[in-house]
Amino acid sequence: MKERQIRVWPEIVHYLPSVSPFQRLAGHEHDIRIDFSGCRQITSTGLTVFLLRLLKLLYGGAPERTWEADNLEFNPIFNLAKELEFFHHLNAYCRNASLFAPEVNYNGPFVPTEHSFYNGRKVISFPISRISFTSHNSERRSAIKAFKKEVHNQLLILESSYRIHANQLTAILVEIAKNSADHTSGDAFFGMDIIHILEKNSIELCFVIGDLGNGINQHIQDHLPSDLKRNRLKHWSLYESYYFALKHGYTSTPESERHKNKGLGMSIILDGAKGINMSLSVFDANSRGIISELNSITHEELRKRFIAFTKDRTFFYYGILECEAL
Question: What is the phi-psi region of residue 249: left when phi exceeds 0, alpha when psi lies from -120 to 50, beta otherwise?
Answer without folding.
Answer: left
